[in-house]
Design goal:
alpha+beta; four-stranded mixed beta sheet; 12 helices; binds magnesium ion
């Protein structure tokens, strides 16, 4: 077992940044900086995200490779929300000297394996010695045809709200894991989370996939007027999507994708399903405003990329107002934190 202290910074960085040879990487890892070649007529799109030990994950629940994949997904999802093609990544790590090199390489392999199918490669990085909490930071660069990125601005009254996947599943996975951990103080997997039936919910939390291919398939149709990825929860991110356009949104309860597994988890956890579905949850799904004339293009892109996709409501001229509208037309406020359980109570 080798530690970072034994191997040294230079050699560790060399191991962490192998294999970036491709035409758009003019100078790869090993020099003072990477030289990247973007294409004429394209905009460069940049995002960054970090994981901090003890804050963003429960170590017992994530292997180093899964942690790497998750960091990649958080960044990939931001580029998907902008309809940008992922290309180049810079990885910065703060690690303790006693960190095992093998586990760091596993982390890197998980990260690179998540980036590769979406077209991105690590072109450089930095390794810093820390004494306390470790952290992992990824900067991801992508490209998009000039002026064609999606943004959060642009939703207008009458535009359709669309959502990919089944939001709330990541929250359910995390809640199940927490419930299991509190049942087993040693931190080992408890009975609830061990149940294979919950696997899709745990995967949604631990092994999310960004909607890159769907976004890239949909982008040329010019159907999307505003977009955001769900990193904090459906209601909270919907509020962010409404704000720049000065609009509100009616979420139609009846047309939200049904999710019996999520409902079963909510019952097991003793939570209202609306709390899981609308409250804090890092699902890395996309929330989109769609031009109603182009709804078929959106459905086609979803079909072609095998992406679960549903229209879930309509943007309104009621600035900042989020409502959950039931099948009979009854309207209840959705707070940006999620479903407001106290609304209407006296
Ligand atoms: Mg985002």
């Amino acid at each position: 077992v080798r530690t970072l202290r034994e191997l040294g910074e230079q050699e560790t960085i060399r191991l962490l940044t192998r294999g970036a040879a491709r035409a758009d990487v003019v100078v790869g890892p090993g020099d003072d900086a990477a030289v990247l070649r973007s294409d004429p007529g394209e905009d460069l799109v940049a995002t960054t995200d970090a994981l901090v030990e003890g804050r963003h994950f429960l170590p017992a629940w994530l292997t180093p490779a899964e942690r790497g994949a998750r960091l990649a997904t958080a960044n990939l999802s931001d580029l998907a929300a902008m309809a940008a093609r992922p290309r180049w990544a810079l990885l910065a790590i703060g690690a303790r000297g006693e960190h095992e090199v093998e586990s760091l390489l596993e982390f890197q392999n998980g990260l690179a394996a998540a980036l590769a199918p979406e077209g991105a490669v690590v072109v450089g990085g930095n390794l810093t010695a820390v004494r306390s909490e470790e952290w992992w930071s990824l900067t991801l660069l992508g490209s998009a045809a000039r002026g064609r990125t999606w943004t959060r601005a642009g939703a207008r009254p009458g535009h359709l709200l669309a959502v990919t996947g089944r939001p709330g599943r990541a929250a359910a996975g995390l809640a199940l894991a927490r419930a299991a951990e509190s049942a087993r103080p040693d931190g080992a997997a408890g009975p609830a989370a061990d149940d294979e039936a919950w696997r899709p919910l745990l995967d949604a939390w631990l092994r999310p996939r960004a909607r890159v291919s769907f976004a890239l398939a949909l982008s040329p149709a010019n159907a999307v007027t505003a977009a955001i990825d769900i990193s904090d929860g459906l209601a909270g991110d919907l509020a962010r999507l409404c704000e720049p356009g000065g609009v509100g949104c009616d979420v139609q309860a009846a047309v939200l994708p049904e999710d019996p597994l999520l409902e079963r988890a909510a019952a097991t956890l003793g939570l209202p399903v609306t709390e899981l579905r609308f409250g804090p949850s890092d699902d890395y799904e996309l929330l989109l405003a769609i031009d109603p004339m182009k709804r078929h293009a959106a459905e086609r892109a979803a079909r072609e990329t095998g992406t679960p996709f549903a229209f879930a409501g309509r943007f309104t001229d009621r600035r900042g107002e989020l409502s959950l509208v039931s099948a009979d037309g009854a309207r209840q406020p959705l707070s940006p934190r999620g479903f407001d359980h106290f609304a209407g109570q006296r």
